[in-house]
Write a structure and sequence with these properties.
Elements lengths: L1 H17 L5 H30 L10 H21 L1
């Protein structure tokens, strides 16, 4: 569900660039709302699940892979956004 909410938010921001000129504070508030909505609906459950299933602690893994994927996705989104302007 959250991937669709995030895609919807991104689509609204792209459309907002062309159709309606909204103040920046609305975009920032919506992004903060998106983060808080995720945390209070799903994030806490994930934290509790890890605490219950791994009582001795979670073995940390490298962030390199997820950060590379995220950065490539962000760059791709920005390229599309700028190409449409």
């Amino acid at each position: 569900m959250w991937i669709w909410v995030t895609i919807g938010y991104l689509a609204i921001t792209v459309v907002g660039d062309f159709v309606i000129s909204l103040p920046e504070i609305i975009y920032r508030g919506a992004a903060l709302g998106l983060l808080c909505g995720w945390f209070f609906s799903v994030g806490r459950k994930q934290i509790d699940y890890v605490a219950d299933e791994l009582p001795s602690g979670y073995t940390r893994k490298s962030w390199t892979g997820p950060l590379v994927v995220g950065m490539i996705s962000l760059i791709g989104f920005l390229v599309i956004d700028f190409a449409l302007q």
